[in-house]
Backbone:
């Protein structure tokens, strides 16, 4: 079963970068986009309802930006943890913010990793290979 | 009774007193003369007493003098009668006059004794004169004392006025100072707020501005990648220029972010060896081994935030290396004492900085050469100055005493002045 990735990112170029990175690395993942926390939460809640699509939500890794309109990354992760159907979801933060405050707040909400958006040439390659390897090697809680 | 009176005035059988002197003219005239003189004298004295009492209204016991006058008058009268009885034997009349004199004399005597204690208490003229003298000298003394008092009062008044005036001045000064303090507090607050605004603006701006810039950089890269060989040489060189500028702006924003963060975070304070920090920075920046570092004498131990010092020397040494125009170069570091500061001078042998630019180079984004020829954000020395401002230090640039190059003087607060200030 291929891994689903829910990418929560308001910047279109950053979304393109993520898609490009995974494609370049040859990762076999399905990436679904949401432009902010609120939209992502709606999407997840529609998937966790009863029916044949509920499995999709369980098999999804969330990758979220922090600075977004309406509902930011921290608020989104908090909402995910509060929802019993989503509480154990695997969440990565992917942000330009290098502040201790953001990093510590993210880990206090039990994210699987805090990924820093970098501007260098290897940044894209690293992200692609990370999720390629991750999708092939990691067993998710409700797979 | 009438009989007795008639009998007593009966002169029958009586002889004039002259008979007793056998009418010897010497005795008769001696008695008569003496009595006449006494009578005259005793008549004159009461007149004098009367005049005295009338003239001196303030005299005490005036009535006593009147009784004296009456008594003397009667005595005089007695002598007149003595004279009279020499020739006329009217001894009854003489007895009546003597009786009257006796009564007045006794009354006077009694009165005199009764008022004697009061008369003792009356001040004598000498006493009065003495006390007058004393009074006069006392008055004199008092006058002197009064004058002195007046002088003192004047002095006191003058110094009081002085005091009032200086009090007034002091009050004005206090008011003024209070006003200045208030203004200063308001200004400090204003400055703090605008500083905070500036910092948060710089942070937000540099942070938020970097995202689209990175997007542009990514997109350029992807276009080049996607087009591959289809990109001709001209387009390729333009893509390259675009990429350079994106990177330059990224660096500028990164430095602006760094600048805005100075003083925002509480950094660990410690004692440190400046030489160690300088060598570390130099080794990192001198990767190509083109430069030599010379530290002729020992540098004193400093205290403060080591990271701040590191940031300063890294920027200064970085500039010395980056702007050097020779194949090789030498950087010399030495320390001197400048009042409350330890001055660490980093001198290079590069092209130097013309005098008119030595202050300007500390401003934000200032470069002396085109960024195309020497890549740089123009923030290095601005960061140096700001770091030193926060650390309580200073920075200045001079030429070198001997030869070419620039000397950057880093004035770091001397450890003992920090200790005494704390």
Residues:
């Amino acid at each position: 079963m291929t891994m689903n990735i829910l990418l929560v990112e308001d910047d279109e170029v950053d979304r393109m970068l993520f898609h490009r990175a995974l494609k370049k690395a040859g990762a076999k993942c399905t990436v679904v986009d949401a432009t902010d926390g609120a939209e992502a939460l709606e999407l997840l809640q529609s998937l966790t309802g009863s029916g044949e699509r509920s499995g999709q939500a369980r098999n999804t890794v969330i990758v979220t930006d922090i600075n977004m309109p309406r509902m930011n990354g921290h608020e989104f992760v908090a909402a995910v943890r509060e929802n019993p159907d989503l509480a154990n979801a695997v969440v990565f933060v992917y942000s330009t913010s290098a502040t201790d405050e953001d990093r510590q707040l993210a880990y206090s909400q039990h994210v699987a990793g805090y990924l820093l958006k970098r501007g260098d040439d290897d940044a894209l390659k690293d992200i692609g290979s990370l999720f390629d390897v991750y999708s092939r090697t990691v067993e998710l809680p409700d797979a | 009774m009438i009989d007795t009176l008639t009998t007593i005035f009966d002169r029958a059988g009586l002889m004039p007193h002259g008979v007793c002197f056998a009418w010897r003219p010497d005795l008769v005239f001696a008695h008569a003369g003496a009595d006449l003189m006494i009578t005259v004298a005793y008549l004159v004295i009461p007149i004098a007493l009367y005049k005295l009492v009338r003239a001196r209204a303030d005299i005490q016991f005036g009535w006593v003098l009147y009784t004296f006058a009456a008594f003397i008058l009667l005595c005089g009268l007695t002598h007149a009668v003595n004279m009279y009885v020499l020739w006329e034997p009217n001894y009854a009349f003489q007895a009546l006059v003597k009786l009257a004199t006796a009564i007045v004399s006794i009354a006077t005597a009694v009165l005199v004794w009764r008022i004697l204690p009061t008369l003792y208490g009356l001040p004598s003229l000498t006493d009065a004169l003495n006390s007058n003298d004393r009074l006069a000298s006392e008055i004199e003394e008092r006058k002197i004392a009064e004058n002195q008092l007046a002088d003192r009062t004047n002095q006191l008044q003058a110094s009081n006025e002085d005091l009032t005036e200086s009090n007034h001045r002091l009050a004005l000064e206090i008011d003024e100072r209070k006003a200045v303090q208030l203004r200063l507090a308001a200004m400090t607050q204003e400055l703090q707020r605008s500083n905070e605004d500036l910092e948060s603006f710089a942070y937000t701006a540099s942070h938020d501005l970097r995202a689209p810039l990175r997007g542009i950089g990514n997109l350029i890269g992807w276009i080049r990648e996607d087009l591959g060989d289809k990109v001709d040489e001209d387009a390729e060189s333009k893509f390259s220029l675009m990429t350079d500028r994106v990177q330059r702006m990224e660096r500028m924003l990164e430095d602006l972010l760094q600048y805005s963060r100075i003083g925002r975070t509480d950094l660990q304070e410690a004692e440190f060896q400046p030489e160690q920090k300088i060598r570390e920075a130099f080794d990192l920046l001198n990767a190509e081994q083109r430069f030599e570092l010379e530290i002729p004498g020992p540098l004193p131990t400093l205290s403060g935030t080591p990271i701040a010092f590191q940031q300063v020397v890294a920027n200064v040494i970085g500039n010395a290396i980056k702007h050097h125009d020779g194949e090789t170069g030498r950087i010399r570091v030495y320390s001197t004492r400048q009042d409350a500061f330890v001055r660490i001078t980093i001198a290079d042998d590069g092209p130097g900085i013309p005098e008119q630019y030595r202050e300007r180079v500390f401003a934000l984004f200032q470069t002396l050469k085109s960024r195309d020829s020497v890549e740089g954000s123009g923030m290095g020395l601005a960061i140096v100055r700001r770091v030193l401002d926060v650390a309580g230090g200073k920075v200045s640039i001079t030429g070198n005493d001997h030869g070419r190059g620039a000397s950057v003087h880093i004035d770091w607060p001397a450890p003992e002045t920090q200790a005494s200030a704390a």
